[in-house]
Specification:
Helix content: 55-70%
Order of helices and strands: HHHHHHHHHHHHHHH
Number of helices: 15
Shape: globular
Number of strands: 0
Distance between the termini: 43 Å
Largest sheet: none
Strand content: under 5%
Structural class: mainly alpha
Radius of gyration: 24 Å
Length: about 280
C-alpha cells in the first residue's frame, strides 16, 4: 500500500532547488556568453541559448588569451601557474601540519603546550594583517616573481595543525602501546599507523586547501610583477579593460569557465574521501 507523502516534505527540496538556481544562473550566463561573439555581448544582449562561437572563443582564450582589444597571457600558462601554486600550498600545508601535529600529540618535550598555543594564536593573524612584513622578507630573499615566493609564505597552516592534532588524539593508547611492543619506532608508527588512519582527513583538507590556493588573489597580485608569473585569477582581472567597449567579455567568460574546471575536477574526484574526512571523528 502506497503512502501519500506529506506536502511539507517538499518544502526543503523547493528551497534547495531555488538556492541552486540562484547560485548556478550566473555560471550559466558565463557559459552561454562564452559561446557568442564580442558584438552580441557589447550590445548589452544577454542570450540564454548557446551561440556559434564556442570553439573559437575557447581556443583563443586557451592559446592566446588576448584579442584585438585585450592583451593578456594565454590561459594555459595562467592555469599552469595557478596549478603549481595550489599544489605547492596544499602539499606543503598538509606535510608541515602532519609533522607538527604528530610532535605535539605524541611527544613530551619542554614547552610543548607553549608551542602549541603559539601555533594556535597565529589563527588570529591572517595573511592580510602580516602581508607587508611578509613581502619585505620575500623581497629581501629574492623570491619576488618566483614560485617559491608564491608558495612558501602561505605554506604553514595553524588550522590544519589543530585539526590533525585533534584527529591524532582520538587514536587509542592501546594502539600506541601495541606498536611499541612490536618494536615500531616513531617514524614507523607515523608512516604505518598514523598516516593510514588519517587518510580521509588528509583528503578532506587536500580539497579545501587546493581551492584555497587556487583562488588566492591578494598575495599573487603583490608578489608577481611580470605577466608570465600571473595566476589565472589575476590574469582574468587584468583582461578587463577600462570600459565595456575595450573589453572582450566572451574571452573573459571562456577563461572563467576554464578556470573553474580544476577545482571542480578535484571535488568530483575526491568527493567520497572528502565527505568521509569531514564526518569521521573516531579512529
Amino acid at each position: 500500500m502506497r503512502t501519500r507523502q506529506r506536502p511539507t516534505n517538499w518544502i526543503p527540496h523547493v528551497i534547495l532547488v531555488i538556492g541552486v538556481a540562484i547560485f548556478a544562473f550566473p555560471i550559466y550566463l558565463a557559459l552561454i556568453g562564452s559561446t557568442h561573439d564580442g558584438g552580441t555581448i557589447a550590445r548589452g544582449e544577454t542570450p540564454l541559448v548557446p551561440g556559434p562561437h564556442l570553439l573559437d572563443n575557447y581556443w583563443q582564450a586557451w592559446t592566446r588569451g588576448s584579442s584585438e582589444r585585450v592583451t593578456s597571457v594565454p590561459v594555459q600558462a595562467l592555469m599552469f601557474n595557478s596549478l603549481v601554486m595550489a599544489l605547492g600550498i596544499t602539499v606543503g600545508k598538509i606535510a608541515i601540519s602532519l609533522i607538527s601535529a604528530y610532535a605535539v600529540a605524541f611527544f613530551a618535550f619542554p614547552l610543548r603546550m607553549f608551542f602549541f598555543w603559539m601555533i594556535f594564536i597565529t589563527l588570529m593573524l591572517p595573511v592580510e594583517v602580516r602581508i607587508i612584513p611578509t613581502y619585505k622578507v620575500v623581497a629581501d630573499l629574492g623570491m619576488v616573481d618566483s614560485f617559491a615566493g608564491l608558495i612558501i609564505p602561505l605554506i604553514a597552516s595553524a588550522t590544519a595543525t589543530l585539526l590533525f592534532r585533534q584527529v591524532f588524539l582520538t587514536i587509542p593508547d592501546e594502539l600506541v602501546e601495541a606498536a611499541k611492543i612490536d618494536g615500531a619506532g616513531p617514524l614507523r608508527f607515523f608512516w604505518a599507523v598514523v598516516i593510514p588512519l588519517s587518510r580521509t582527513n588528509i583528503a578532506a583538507l587536500f580539497v579545501i586547501l587546493f581551492i584555497y590556493g587556487w583562488n588566492q588573489y591578494l598575495w599573487p597580485l603583490l608578489i608577481t610583477t611580470t605577466r608570465s608569473m600571473e595566476t589565472v585569477v589575476i590574469g582574468i582581472v587584468k583582461m578587463i579593460g577600462t570600459g565595456d567597449a575595450q573589453t572582450d567579455w566572451q574571452i573573459i567568460m571562456a577563461s572563467t569557465i576554464l578556470a573553474m574546471l580544476p577545482p571542480v575536477a578535484v571535488i568530483l574526484f575526491m568527493q567520497r574521501w572528502f565527505v568521509k574526512g569531514l564526518i569521521e571523528t573516531e579512529k
